[in-house]
Amino acid sequence: MTATTRTAPHPPARRLTRPPARGPRRGRRLWGLVTFLSLGVVGYAVVVYFGFDPSRSTVELREDVPWHYAVLMGHIVTAAVALAVGPLQLSRRIRAHRRVHRWIGRTYLFAGVLPSVVFGVPAAILSTQGAGAAAGLLVGDVAWGVTAVVAYRAARQRRYRDHARWMVRNFALTFAAVTFRVWLPLLILAQVPLLESVHGGDFDALFTVAYTATCWLAFLPNLAVVMLIQRRQGVPSR
């Protein structure tokens, strides 16, 4: 008789499964946060400025310019449209429906961004917080308008990838309405210990410094972060 050897059966092969992708989930969470914050600022603007009462304006008005409040309100109302509609443009589900996406985009640009820039330029020039604040507001408005025009031209020329890139950059500037309200209180609080030593107890001077810095910080970091992310993703800066 010959001895037979039995080999132990091989364990069943395990199927290698990839962990669930985190990118789309993170993207949805980020989109939800951006939408929530954007609508929060829109709601704030409605509460404060509903009724068109100049006495409730949180922006100091020039008494020597009777139409200051009118251009300010035009800027705020149209900016609120852009801020409310803008997050919809970032939704992949909505972008999949081209006709809906196109009409939302037109509303965003022609009822929101572009008229808001037109109103925002004189409103920036009329700022009572000094030349530094006025310059920051003016540069932000011009950049907002330029990115909108570049994005629109790319869409008209069917350069849809360029259009998408510039629209994201444009919304980063739209989102300045949110980040402005984050930076301003932070910069005020950061200077409170310096109120006596630096500003001589003058809170108005402290506020002017914070407001001027906020006029620049509200949009420059937003745009820089978006362009840095796009660069890492291989998106050209043009």
TrEMBL record:
Region ranges (Disordered): 1-24
Protein name in UniProt: DUF2306 domain-containing protein
Organism: Georgenia subflava
Aminoacyl-tRNA synthetase in keyword set: no
Composition bias, Basic residues: 12-24
Record keyword Membrane present: yes
Keyword annotations: Membrane, Transmembrane, Transmembrane helix
Transmembrane segments: 30-52, 67-86, 107-125, 131-152, 173-194, 206-229
